[in-house]
Amino acid sequence: MASTSSDLVNSCEGSSFAVGEVVPPLELGKSTSIAAKFAGRAERFRLQAIASQILPDGHRTRSCFHVPVSGKIEARLTFKAVAYLDGLCLCGKVWVCPVCLHQIMSRRRLEVIQVNKVARGRGQHVAMVTWTYRHRLADDFGLGVRRLREAHRLTVSHRTYKELFKAQFGVLHSILAMEATRGDVNGWHPHFHKLHYSTVKITEIPEALHRLWADSCQAVGLRRPDREHGLVLTHDADAYVAKWGFAEEVTGQAHKKSETALSLLARFADTGDRECARLFLEYVEATYGIHQLQFSRGAKADYGIAQVTDQQASHVSDEERESSILLRRISLPEWYLITKFRAQPALLDVMQEKGEPGIRELIEDLQRRNTRTFFS
User: Fold this and answer.
1) Residue 93, class by beta-carbon neighbours within 10 Å (0-12 exposed, 13-18 middle, 19+ buried)?
2) In a 10 Å sphere around its CB, with 0-12 CB exposed, 13-18 middle and 19+ buried, how is residue 15 labelled?
3) Number of H-type helices and E-type strands within the chain
4) Which residues contact 367 (CB under 8 A, 6 or more apart)?
5) Which terminal Cβ of the chain has fewer Cβ within 10 Å, N or C?
6) What is the pLDDT of residues 277-321, one digit of tens each?
7) Max CA separation in the chain (angstroms)
8) Kind and range of the H or E run holding 347
9) Nearest residue to 34 (alpha-carbon basis) of 374, 364, 286, 347
10) What is the average per-residue pLDDT within 12-40?
11) Exposure of 240 in the CB half-sphere (CA atoms within 13 A)
């Protein structure tokens, strides 16, 4: 993969550590309540470490939750008893980093839930339309993503779309989410899920809009979708929002007939299948610079949603930071040990379970382990 499109950076400003050697992570006993409660967190960090091995040198994700941005690292607990570490580089790469993905998607999910609540409180209707096209195994994924976005742009800027959705149904705002899965038979499947907020309930997609979408796909070089699969309407938007992002977070499960980028990464981690690693890098390349979630112009202001970038969303909010409590300051030598043994998830776990005494116990355990490793 060419470095020019891989978000290559030297490191986070002010950092003093490079990505260290990969050693077996510190594991908490599987029978403990901590291990059961925080298994998802450990998996996200495991996959982040695997991604760091195959991403090109200098990619920001390789420094994420690893490189200090100053000499001060603080272990803190929010008023909701959520543990976080202040003073570290966070990449904010929602398409690439399993750790930042979880934080960003959690924030975005709450935003969409708030929009739905406010919209319904005003008597508006919520409908979701899936936009897709016919794809094949040999298709170029990056080209497919670019053409899908262009086909959508052609459709929504067309007079027919404006007359039907804005004039007939009274669509006020929309939220566009892009997703991509991959199947062994038909390859990568980039597609859109679009939430429409309207004054009139959308009961069906007009035939003219089906034709317009098919024409737009064909005009940009995509295969013409059929009526059944091109545009699909559903009113169960809440169910989609409730699980939104969980398909991308690797809980170890993918769709029955398709996989997400992170499930491919998990398969590479578990089996060493290099084709999975190649496909993950292809995904990183194709999604570079693309917003995963887009609100229509004025939607955030209308529904009371703050303007927050993915980079900002990967951190705790200002409100959470201001009301948090300091558990302990972690020295750079201590942090070196934590990263050496990939104990970041274990650290967050004990912060939430035991507070400062748990941090102290963990660091002492790491120091003993490091001594044994040095003399072995």
Assistant:
1) buried
2) middle
3) 16, 8
4) 337
5) C
6) 999 999 999 999 999 999 999 999 999 999 999 999 999 888 888
7) 76
8) helix 344-354
9) 347
10) 38
11) 20
Tell me if 26 sits within 8 A of 342, measured CB to CB.
yes
**In the predicted model, what is the mean pLDDT of the chain?**
85
The pTM (predicted TM-score) of the whole model is 0.83
Would you call 63 helix, strand, or coil by DSSP?
helix
The CA distance from 57 to 284, in Å, is 14
Contact predicate 344/314, CB 8 Å: no
The DSSP result for 265-304, as a single string, is: HHHHHHH--HHHHHHHHHHHHHHTT--SEEEPTTHHHHHT
Class of residue 351 by CB neighbours under 10 A (exposed 0-12, middle 13-18, buried 19+): buried
In Å, how far are 50, 235, 253, 275, 277 from 272, measured between CA atoms? 11, 41, 18, 9, 8
In the sheet where 325-330 sits, what is the strand order?
Answer: 83-86, 73-77, 325-330
Among candidate residues 112, 113, 116, the one with its CA nearest the CA of residue 125: 116
Whether 121 has a pLDDT exceeding 60, the answer reads yes
**Tokens at 178, concatenated:** 């892009």
Q: Sort 146 into a burial class: Cβ within 10 Å, 0-12 / 13-18 / 19+.
A: middle
Q: What is the pLDDT of residues 30-61, one digit of tens each?
A: 333 444 445 689 999 999 999 999 999 999 99
Instruction: Give CA–CA dist 244/109, Å, rounded.
Output: 7
Domain segments of the chain as ranges: 3-90+315-375, 101-259+286-305
